UniProtKB/TrEMBL annotation:
It comes from Actinomadura coerulea. PANTHER family: SULFOQUINOVOSYL TRANSFERASE SQD2. The keyword Transferase applies. It comes from the Bacteria. Residues 99-274 form the Glycosyltransferase subfamily 4-like N-terminal domain. This is Glycosyltransferase involved in cell wall biosynthesis. GO terms for biological process: carbohydrate derivative biosynthetic process. Keywords: Glycosyltransferase, Transferase. One of its GO terms (molecular function) is glycosyltransferase activity. It holds the Pfam family Glyco_trans_4_4.
Amino acid sequence: MADEPVKKTVYLAGLAWRQLRDDPGRASRLAVRLAARTPLGARLRRSRLVVPRPRDAGRETRDLRLLLDEPAPPRTRRAVQGTTVLQFVTNALPRTNAGYTVRTHRIALAQREMGLDPHVVTRLGYPLSQGVADARARVDVDGVPYHRLLPWFPQTDPRDTVAKSADLAGRLVEELRPSVLHAVSNHLNAAVALELGRRHGVPVVYEVRGFLEDSWLSRDPAHREDDEFYRLTRELETRRMAEADAVVTLGEAMRAEIASRGVPEEKIFTVPNGVDEAFLAPLPDGSGLRERLGIDRGATVAGLTSSFYGYEGIDTLIDAAALLRDRGAPVTLLLVGDGPERGALERRAAERGVHAVFTGRVPMESVRQYHAVLDVFAVPRRADRVCQLVTPLKPIEAMAGGIPVIASDVKALREIVEPGVTGALTVPEDPEAWANCLEDLAYSPERRQKIGRSAREWVAAERTWRAVTAGYRAAYRFPTRQST
């Protein structure tokens, strides 16, 4: 559209002004982030100043209180007709490549195969709100329409954000006539869907893919469950679950947590993570990539694909590798991904003399090439509450390729790893236990192959996107029918 360049400029200028007004201390970080995007800014891209500083906790809690003070308006619900699904998400492909966005996309593709008509809507301002100068109102990925809600100016009040989002998305509702509004974590997406449901009489399903307050709790040892941010976020998330017509979540531990908050069990549906059927094909030859990464042909390689947050426990994996080196049974670590802990993890590996290859983020279509380098896929998550509850996607992708998984023995991971059959479980945050488990499996080729085959068979039977996505029909109250 002709106004896209102007809207992009106006919105980004407004975003910078709002950030500096809210927190003048962000000025240096904002300058570095802008400079890093220039052709001369390559070195700056590794600076800690490039990482955006979280908003002031006081402003965050103020916003939560404002949303909680808003009364829940009554809604009328009409019967489900048609097959159009309008899904509301925080971020999406092609700009953001993460487990969250991969799940969104694969579900949309699988729903289309089922005969549904899925459309995805990203949160207000995205991707401009991320500093990405892309003001297209719609982007299609593999035939899936991704709609963007792009105002001229960023909102400052969360209630205005919900109202403006509903105003812009209301045009889509009127055009597409969706049968269901499917909001995905977090509570703001749910609030937008609920407001649209109120205005248009459309049923609302809220998909809880994680617990925001527990993720926040795990990212800083200073955070506590009695902090106001934790308490208010939990209260607001629970309210959105209660207000929705149905709640979808990823696993049984998460289902039990949601039910414990007073949400009726009969309206909670489990749709676990899955994989595209292409992940079940034989892995490509990894020898060429090994050589390019500087990994010896005969080296034993353990690793992961992940976002680098503290709760992922990658420090435990590095410490375990150091113990194995001292025992004369070294492993090379292949750590694929990025995040706020990457710099600290690189320093840790160097200090302990561990051969660790950090690749940064890789394109989604290249993940299996990196899987082909691995002998063992590791999920060394901590015993934090968020890790006990939330089931990750990445290990299922590895299992589909026949790679044995070693995971921390926490509730959520017990749902996908059967010890001795599809993988191994060991003590979280215990480098020696991890070293023992790694040595036992990594140096037993026949056992690795047997476990890898069993893991692949389990994924093929139960965890393809086609298999798991059928669970949405019950949540949507759609009648079962064969795909066309």
